[in-house]
Amino acid sequence: MKKSIDKKQMTSKSKNRVFTAARIKTLAADVLYDILGSILYGAGMYTFAVAANFAPGGVSGIAILINHLTNGLVPIGFCTIIINIPIIIICLRTLGKGFFLRSVKTIIISAVIVDYLMPMLPVYTGEPILAAIFGGIFAGAGLAFIYMRESSTGGSDFVILAIRKKNPQLSIGNISLAVDGVIILLGWMVYGRIDAVLYGIIMTIGYSLIVDKLMYGIDMRKLAIIITTKGEDIAREIGHEVERGVTVAKGVGAYTGNEKQILLCTCSKAEVFKIKRIAYSHDSKSFIMVSSLDAAYGEGFKPHMD
Which of 35, 48, 162, 184 is deepest in the core (most CB within 10 A)? Predict the structure, then answer.
């Protein structure tokens, strides 16, 4: 009896060690992504936007404007933390405790990097239009790294992700453009020139597009929908030739009343032509629809854990 209890205790301790190791590994990955993302994001904001005298959207944009108005007395990173406090309190219930804790970690890391690392690096002093473009690329890449670990830099990110949680059909990039518009317009008042607004718009559009492309575009897939009377034959050959799974559902033509099969197959862009060819070879009257998917999760595609 005692041996049985000891064995159970050892098993429990072993599971706890595995669980602890997994948590440490996850935390290490989160911190690494935060550091890389914050460096890229900080470069976009500090190295390009601040040096070129314009501000993009988001809380970072507000912090840049305040930094400019105070002649640099209020550090950008510190200012973002202060502005984030009321926003965090308002959005905490919607986004959940886990996301809140991850984001607080990211906000602190990002603020430290912007205030202490970025001033040590050279800034871009060339054409403002190039600063806006490359600032958007760097900031977008940085945000994508951070979003991939289900975290954020706070501020308007909290508002954006809270909106997306209630409306998952909306892309982060499109919501970002809407939320950041008002902040960008403030640049006209602060800098006293319309160019600041235009450059801010360019940079914001740039990083919004980069975020969507890095998070979704790389994994973008196609969904082939085939309506046919030869469903089993087509599905079998797709499985053999393309090595993709096919879901077969029954359907009825509303006009003819004839029974048909509806085939659903998620594939890559390169595989669409093969699937179309296979469907046509078995049924020249088949109806084929191809649509784009932002991402596909499961066997043969992106793992669910990512």
Answer: 48
Tokens read off for 198: 């235009």
The structure's pTM equals 0.67
**SS3 at position 247:** strand
Q: Which of 195, 189, 259 is nearest to 230 (CA)?
A: 259
Q: Which two tokens stand for residue 56?
A: 């993009």
| CA dist list (Å): 183 to 149, 164, 173, 239, 285 | 26, 20, 16, 51, 54
Q: CA distances (Å), 58 to each of 136, 161, 261, in order?
A: 13, 13, 49
Q: Pick from 106, 210, 215: which is nearest to 158 by CA?
A: 106
Q: Strand 221-228 vs strand 287-293: parallel, antiparallel, or unpaired?
A: antiparallel
pLDDT at 138 over 80: yes
CA-wise closest residue to 296 among 247, 260, 262, 249: 247
Q: How far apart are CA 259 and CA 266, in angstroms?
A: 23
